[in-house]
UniProtKB/TrEMBL annotation:
Keywords: Signal. Residues 81-94 have a biased composition (Basic and acidic residues). Residues 55-64 have a biased composition (Acidic residues). Residues 107-118 have a biased composition (Basic residues). This is Serine aminopeptidase S33 domain-containing protein. PANTHER family: ALPHA/BETA HYDROLASE DOMAIN-CONTAINING PROTEIN, PROTEIN ABHD13. Residues 41-124 are annotated as: Disordered. Residues 176-285 form the Serine aminopeptidase S33 domain. Residues 1-22 form the signal peptide. It comes from Cylindrotheca closterium.
């Protein structure tokens, strides 16, 4: 069901009304799909380096126990043919899309409240973190340097989980850049680990990769407005803790959905070193439908912001992109102020998610980024 068909339009409209005309609630339901479970975790440690137990939500544990007990009782009636569905089960199966989206939003708010309280207490107690990747990932060897797992406070009251890749001291200089990487919508910083390690190793730059509110180990809700406070908090922390107070060393890198917060900050902030937009879109709703019937629900209006960019901009887009057609990237490139335009890379044989796949293409990708970084000095 596409979002421009009558049923989808009706569901979105109902959700909009039920949420108190909250554009953010509707946009969050359409835009953000955090991996569940995440492809990493942060092992909590005290000041002496001792591992701390993972947080366990007692309420959720009780619910799991109830569900398990209920399931055992349900199974008891199957063998003798007396099983009957519980009252309300059929109704649940027939829930409207708007109702499902509303219930999901309530669950996320509940999770956010608990996460924020947990992270605040950890910060007060001086808890540190160690990155633990999902066993299915096979990251490349990280050469020298240092990898840190941190949680960064934001103005929204939540904490963003971030991984900091510091290049080896022997290759650092006054020209060393730091990429602040805003990833796509259906991934997290665990899944992005291999690429971030390669970027750090190959470009001799630092990388700060963070999860949006509601993703992975981050607190908060996955909402458009929260991505803006997320990236602002992460960049502020990066300037202070990684770039020695020099904002010109920060390069914003926004991939797909990540182009939204990157464009927003790139429009508002003076003095940043540059910005890379990888498979970006003109705006969120323009990806879903060319119709402007739902224009009031549009988010991440990159096409309106890129013309106000305050740093050099490079566009990367696959010509075979079926999710976000290359016309989006071309329109954004054309809208960049002429003195800030850098050579774009229109990739002839790649789509939305495979631009860096394959040894030859990865090498070309790194070469293009290196060329861009060299234009900034």
């Amino acid at each position: 069901m596409c979002c421009c068909c009558p049923a989808a339009v009706n569901a979105l409209f109902c959700l909009w009304v039920q949420s108190g005309f909250s554009k953010g609630t509707v946009a969050g339901a359409l835009t953000f799909f955090p991996p569940d479970p995440p492809l990493y975790k942060f092992q909590r440690r005290d000041k002496e380096g001792n591992n701390l137990p993972d947080f366990v939500d007692d309420e959720d544990e009780e619910e799991d126990k109830k569900d398990k007990k209920s399931g055992e009782n349900d199974d008891a009636g199957v063998e003798d043919g007396t099983f009957k569905p519980k009252e309300g089960e059929a109704k649940e199966e027939m829930q409207s899309p708007a109702k499902q989206l509303t219930e999901k939003s309530k669950e996320l708010r509940k999770r956010a409240k608990k996460r924020n309280a947990r992270d605040k207490k950890d910060a007060e107690d001086g808890v540190e973190y160690k990155l633990v990747l999902d066993s299915r990932l096979q990251p490349p060897k990280f050469k020298g340097g240092k990898i840190e797992a941190v949680k960064i406070p934001t103005k929204s009251g939540s904490y963003c989980a971030a991984i900091v890749y510091r290049c080896p001291k022997k290759v650092r200089s006054d020209r060393t850049k730091t990429l602040v990487f805003s990833h796509g919508n259906a991934t997290d910083i665990g899944a992005m680990f291999p690429l971030q390690a390669i970027l750090c190793n190959s470009l001799n730059c630092n990388v700060v990769s963070y999860d949006y509110s509601g993703y992975g180990e981050s607190g908060g809700m996955p909402l458009e407005k929260n991505t803006y406070t997320d990236i602002a908090g992460v960049v502020k922390w990066t300037i202070e803790e990684v770039c020695d107070g020099d904002e010109s060393k920060v390069i914003l890198y926004g991939q797909s959905v990540g182009s939204g917060p990157s464009c927003h900050l790139g429009m508002k902030t003076e003095g940043l070193g540059g910005m890379v937009l990888h498979s970006p879109f003109m705006s969120g709703m323009r990806v879903l439908t060319p119709s402007r019937i739902l224009g009031c629900l549009d988010i991440f209006p990159n096409i309106d912001r890129i013309s106000k960019a305050k740093c050099p901009v490079m566009l990367i887009h696959g010509k075979l992109d079926q999710e976000v057609p290359i016309a989006h990237g071309e329109a954004l490139h054309n809208a960049v102020p002429d003195h800030l335009k850098r050579t774009p890379w229109w990739v002839p044989d790649r789509g939305h998610n495979d631009i860096t796949e394959g040894r030859g293409k990865l090498a070309e990708y790194l070469a293009k980024l290196r060329e861009f970084l060299e234009t900034l000095d």
